[in-house]
Amino acid sequence: KHSSQFDKTKLLINPSLISNQYNDYEIQLQRRSQWASITKPFNTFSLSFSTKNIYKNISLGAMILNDVAGDSDFSTDGLSLSFSKAFSRKENLFSISLQTALYQRALSYEELIFIENEYLQVRKVSFFDIGLGFSNYKKINKNAYFLAGISSHHLNTPNQSLSLNNTSRLKVKHILHCTYYSILNSKTNIFPTGYISLQNQQKEIVIGSGFLYK
């Protein structure tokens, strides 16, 4: 899953994007709430900080994530750190990144009803996660540039099972994305965007555009 403005969550989409952010420092706070009309709301909160070119084209980012879903209060809490290195070649800025994260998942059984008595062994599980990202920022002319990237998450396929007797591996997730930025005139910018997510048998494609009027 992702936020509706997924292009604003660089560390979730592709951590290499912190190398070509517009500002030297960025802080982002996001909150999402879903399905409040039919069940207990699914709430997601994230806070991130990133800084670019702190030393020899190396950029750093950190993010705190909290996600709580459903009657079981199934929660995912995590802290991720990202390191990105940029390389300039003519009109291109290539960036490669490494992301490491520590997550904890937990749930509560108090609000759940079982037909038979269940012996539930584990309420919390922690796991380490590794991801990689690559992107290219290409300047086409003074009024347009193109940004494309690919990232892979959960490369170590961590075990996220809450059962001592079973294993549930988090499958590798690949994300491809691209954005074309164009300055139409002194007041108007447009930036069509494409996003593809692949994880196991799941696939998602999002196509849209942003529009800026000054």
Task: Briefly summarize what is shown.
This protein is an all-beta fold and 214 residues long. Helix content is 2%, strand content 61%.
List the helices and strands and how they pair.
Blueprint: H1 10-13, E1 25-34, E2 42-55, E3 58-69, E4 74-89, E5 92-106, E6 124-141, E7 144-153, E8 173-183, E9 188-199, E10 202-213
Antiparallel strand pairs: 1-2, 2-3, 3-4, 4-5, 5-6, 6-7, 7-8, 8-9, 9-10
Task: Output the keywords.
214 residues; mainly beta; 10-stranded antiparallel beta sheet; 1 helix; 2% helix; elongated
Structure description:
The protein is mainly beta and 214 residues long. It is 2% helix and 61% strand. It is built from 1 helix and 10 strands. The protein has one helix at 10-13, and strands at residues 25-34, 42-55, 58-69, 74-89, 92-106, 124-141, 144-153, 173-183, 188-199, 202-213. The protein has a 10-stranded antiparallel sheet, with no helix packed on it. The longest helix is centred in the first third of the chain and has 4 residues, at 10-13. The radius of gyration is 20 Å and the shape is elongated. 18% of the residues are buried. The mean pLDDT is 90.
The side-by-side strand order for the widest beta sheet comes to 1-2-3-4-5-6-7-8-9-10
Give the SSE string.
Answer: HEEEEEEEEEE
Number of strands: 10
Average pLDDT across residues?
90
